[in-house]
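Lab meeting notes turned into a lecture example. A postdoc, R.K., suggested we walk through two folding results consecutively so the class can see how the record format repeats. The first protein's sequence and structure tokens come next.
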Amino acid sequence: MKTLIRGGEVVLKEKTEKLDVLIDNGKIEKLAKDIKPQVDYKIIEAEGKTVIPGIIDIHVHLREPGYEGKEDIESGSKAAVAGGVTQLCCMPNTNPVCDNAVTVKYIKIREKEVNLCKIHPIGAITKGEKGEALADIGKMAQAGAVAVSDDGRSVMNSLIMRLGMEYASGFNLKCLCHCEDINLVDGGVVNEGKNSTLTGLKGSPRAAEDIMIARDVSLAESLNVPVHICHVSTYSGVDIIRSAKRRGVKVTAETCPHYFILNDDIITDFDTFTKVNPPVREEKDRLAIIEGLKDGTLDCIVTDHAPHSRKDKEVEYNLAAFGMSGIETSFALSYTYLVKSGTVDICGLMKLMSYNPAHTLGLDGGEICEGGVADLAVVDLNAKYVIDGEKFISKGKNTPFNGFEVYGKVCATLVDGELKYEAKA
């Protein structure tokens, strides 16, 4: 059966246009005005709404296997499609760590069982994410891993990191680098600055992130291999990446909504939902992140979706787990604070959330075009709502955006042309 999305404003790569979208066998068969429906077509009415390419979130923690109390592949997938996410890449810091082909295959099996969004496993760079010996990257690539990372930890040994980059590039995989000099962090839980002093919470300096960004960019440059920098949070980190790109270094980078919306004033009420790694930093960092998104220094918007149970967060700040749940709100937050503010237009936003992530990791999709994969979301850009973490589908209710008023409600999500989510009226 063919599906016809009728009457929506379609976000193409360079422009938006009011078009119908005809889908057949998981592909976009036709984009045109006033496509005449046949009797057996499934009709999705999109009049007054916008059709966007499905969001591709290349930095998500699904917690399974091992931490299913925080999230599992089913609950995370349900949350993803509710947020307009059609593809996601899950990080390897599970239990056991995803550092072998068996665990990669397990995740792919669970993807098929759940049958909602597309899930691409990211394998570990080192065995057990211990930073001591390389994982079997080749076998993980053959099993379906799309990248490697020790996310949650930096590979502190520079020789091991070099070997990991070389090994991964041989299988056309990128290293996704969590940049944090753990010795400089020294137990810090928030950004080091005025507010860490006021609250008495131990600070983590920008240098802890910047030093490792510089190292990994330098390795990529000397080896002439690509590298991807995760969750950039500092103004100086943006400058390092911008300078590297101007020299022709094969570097891409990402950031998250909490880094371009919030600053570290949020920590002063000791709400543990604000505890994240790297930490939310100062206003000049927030503004630099926005400029980096605007000028192309930062390629992707991701969530670093890190769901936690209540017991992980309902403790004193120093003991609370790092991380925020964000996959259901990333589009609305990004649309509200980047498009409605005039920083980028809707085409530019979808480049950051769909097109660039696809090209960064070599995934299918990321744009709406004839013959392309029918991974789509229908959104109401005029629909306004207030974020309430207690209503999240994700098991993780830990959002710092409770009470924020946003625009951009996801009405429907299609994966390979199949309706996987439809909002309640």
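The second example is placed directly after the first for contrast:
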Amino acid sequence: MEKKNIILSVNDLRISFKTQYGILQAIRGVSFDLYKGETLAIVGESGSGKSVTSRAIMGLLAGNSIVEDGQIHYAQRDLLQMPEEIFHEIRGSKIAMIFQDPMSSLNPIVKIGKQITETLIFKLKMPKKIAKERAVQLMAEVGIPEPEKRYHQYPFQFSGGMRQRIVIAIALANNAEILICDEPTTALDVTIQAQILDLINKLKVERNLSVIFITHDLGVVANVADRIAVMYAGKFVEIGTADDVFYDPQHPYTWALLASMPSLATSDTLDAIGGTPPNMTFPPKGDAFAPRNKYALQIDLEQEPPMFKVSETHYAATWLLHPNAPKVTRPLAVLEVQKNRGKSK
């Protein structure tokens, strides 16, 4: 088996927030490795903890956050224990982030070219003339037409998809090793979504980037993710290769996400996930998904399941994997995905 190089390692991360109602447990023991050159997708509903995890890696947690435990190792150092001035150097230069709304990363009254060259001049100490040439190259690399002309335009003169391309260019200006994409296509129409996904995938291959892709939509990452971590109520409930998660899902929450995902093969009404996520100010005693899970066992209400090993690449936290658990039939939508996969082989 080929040995993979770990570029980032998150170990037992636990983060809570002070609120007017008490302490909200946002991240409850998240652990994962990110390998060099891979795309790891973290998927789950809003409020599951995906963005909090990514912001912890970037050192961008809100002021009311409490890091209760855990480590985030990059370049043999724990980012959580790193002085802010050193963390600031890593943030943006070695680890870059793309947000859902590109305007949150762009200054509306500064020309696009200047926003790219500032990164090159101040962080890489590049001369202005060379910085401009490099900025134009980056704009061309991310698919901006007529980059020399558009270099002098303002953000409002670009479409949403083109603004997202500019943000990607700024993120790549420092030759970052890790790119965190936090719902980068949510505000875009389907055609532009596909273009941005193709661009991220192309740049990952060309630059040997490691990508963490945050999304609530499993369908978005179907063709770009190497591995997928399914997140619910601040924990990973399933993690495996894209094939593991799409074609051999084990956790009922993963089944529910797949059943609610439209496809060309969809013939019936999509299944909605009933109920709402738990209030993590008062976290449940057992499996957090149990109240919404029609396959829940009595033990799900009483005790959190451990991560069971399905294969060398696949793990899931569900009591249905216990040797004594009853056998259940997966939802029809999940069986359809498996059947269609068999036809396509």
